[in-house]
């Protein structure tokens, strides 16, 4: 059995992939069209990330996006999905207050979008919320390391957990999340050696972004991978296309054709 054989990817399927050493593929999507393409390509996990705040809405951080907006994106994505597991980010402000608020936010996402799981940022600080959401039967994915919702505390988007104290806390948080019952954890922008250690110490799948090759799977923001974003160039990003330039070139050609009256031609009219 390989990942491609799953008709529907479940949290259990991800665990099986980890157990047999098959890497898990995960990408973001925020809309129907791209979600359809990546699901048809057999991506294992689709993340409706709060990076929609940057990528779709043009904000400088993930903080402004609202729960209603995340639900809108998740509904659009879910309509396109046949196979992948769809995980939706709880946005900033929808779970940090208390565990009841966290549960209500998670329930709204599951009920109103039809998503399969939620993801939230943090370890010990959000543990009570994680447990309460899990107790309602909602699968939870953790997110440690560079957690963009805390960017104003960190001050920069640089690599996290380089110091031993922060690395120790990350190891402990990862263990707490697994013990609480999370089905997986994202590790963002931490040293590869630390990510490998954490991955080996956990039974649940660990998905990395800027966390090296020793994790159980990789996640990227789709818009970065296909080169729709131009300014974001971290070392961990591999671009497979340069769509920004391609789309811009196509639009320039279209404008030129309209201006020169080349478009539409005889065949392109009724
Ligand atoms: O919102 C997002 O895109 C994410 C990934 C970077 C993991 O959380």
Strand order of the largest sheet: 1-2-3-4-5-6-7-8
- At the fourth level of CATH, the homologous superfamily of the largest domain is Phosphoenolpyruvate-binding domains
Number of helices: 11
Structural class: alpha/beta
Bound heterogens, unique: 3-methyl-2-oxobutanoic acid
Largest sheet: 8 strands, parallel, barrel
In total, how many domains does the architecture comprise? 2
CATH topology value of the largest domain: TIM Barrel
Q: How far is the N terminus from the C terminus?
A: 53 Å
Point out poorly predicted stretches.
none
Shape: globular
| CATH class (first level) name of the largest domain | Alpha Beta
Strand content: 5-15%
């Amino acid at each position: 059995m390989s990942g491609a054989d799953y008709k529907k990817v479940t949290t259990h399927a991800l665990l099986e992939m980890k157990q047999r050493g098959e890497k898990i593929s995960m990408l973001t999507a925020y809309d129907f069209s791209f979600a359809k393409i990546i699901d048809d390509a057999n991506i294992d996990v689709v993340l409706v990330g709060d990076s929609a705040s940057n990528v779709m809405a043009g904000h400088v951080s993930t903080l402004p996006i609202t729960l209603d907006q995340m639900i809108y994106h998740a509904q659009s994505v879910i309509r396109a999905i046949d196979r992948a597991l769809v995980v939706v980010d709880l946005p900033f402000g929808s779970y940090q207050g208390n565990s009841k608020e966290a549960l209500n936010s998670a329930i709204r996402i599951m009920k109103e979008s039809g998503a399969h799981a939620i993801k939230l940022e943090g370890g010990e600080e959000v543990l009570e919320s994680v447990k309460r959401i899990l107790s309602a039967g909602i699968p939870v994915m953790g997110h440690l390391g560079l957690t963009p919702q805390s960017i104003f505390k960190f001050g920069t988007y640089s690599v996290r957990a380089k110091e031993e104290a922060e690395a120790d806390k990350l190891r402990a948080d990862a263990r707490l999340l697994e013990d609480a019952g999370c089905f997986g954890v994202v590790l963002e922008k931490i040293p590869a050696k630390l990510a490998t250690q954490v991955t080996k110490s956990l039974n649940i799948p660990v998905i990395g972004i800027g966390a090296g090759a020793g994790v159980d799977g990789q996640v990227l923001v789709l818009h970065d991978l296909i080169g729709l974003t131009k300014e974001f160039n971290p070392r961990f990003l591999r671009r497979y296309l340069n769509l920004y330039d391609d789309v811009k070139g196509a639009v320039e050609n279209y404008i030129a054709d309209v201006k020169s009256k080349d478009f539409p031609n005889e065949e392109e009219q009724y």
